[in-house]
Amino acid sequence: MIVFTGIPPLRTSNHPQDIVDALANLHRLPMNQIMETVCTQAGVEFVALNSRRTDTVLADWDANAYRAIGELIAERLAPKLSDPGEPRPH
Fold it and tell me: Where are the domains of the chain?
């Protein structure tokens, strides 16, 4: 199973690097929409990384951020992994 994750939100402050973060945030939503459309057409799972749970921790990119991302992916994939579904053609 292939999974693509969306572009997460970036935190901005008054740091000079924030212009880059602000530009990335500006383009994040349209890029995520494009990726989700392409993934849907290709039959690939797309997991958006924008939820209240991840928005608060992704800005720091610490262990909590990676845990939140893993939980989002696991919640999306767990039902599909536990259901054997149709056998694949060989």
Answer: 40-72
Residues 56-78 have pLDDT tens digits of 656 667 788 788 888 888 888 88
| Structure tokens that stand for 2 in this block | 């292939």
User: What's the predicted TM-score (pTM) here?
Assistant: 0.67
Q: State how far the Cα of 73 lies from the Cα of 22, in Å rounded to an integer.
A: 26
Closest CA to 80 of 30, 48, 51, 43: 43
Secondary structure (3-state) at 5: strand
Q: How far apart are the first and last CA of the chain?
A: 16
Q: Which residues of 12-47 are buried (b: 16+ CB within 10 A; e: fewer)?
A: eeeeeeeeebeeebeebeeebeebbeebeeeeeebb
